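User: Can you help me understand a structure? I only have the sequence.
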Amino acid sequence: MVSDRLAIIHKGVVVAEGTPEQIKSLAKEKFRIVIEGSLKDLGLTEKSNHIVRFGSKHIIYVKNEDEAIELVRKAIKKGLKAETSPVTLEDVFVSLVGGEMN
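Assistant: Let's start by predicting it. Here is the structure, written out as tokens:
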């Protein structure tokens, strides 16, 4: 369950506040794709795309739904496990505080 209003505080400073939807709207990229396996066959690089790696999984952030669906299609055709969804509050939190989880 999420509150009606949130505040994201980083090092004692409020960096964002509002409803969960208002906070999510602050993200540059609106969709995330989680792909398990190697990205080399998809033509993606961590330098040219917003990609976060967690073990064998990669989270790729894209600006729109069409981009997300196309990337999932490519991944599935290559035999990779892939799923997409809108960005989460956690994604926005990490982007706003520069990736620092402490």
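Now, to help you interpret it: The longest strand covers residues 13-18. The chain has two domains: 1-27+89-102, 28-86. Let me know which part you'd like to focus on.
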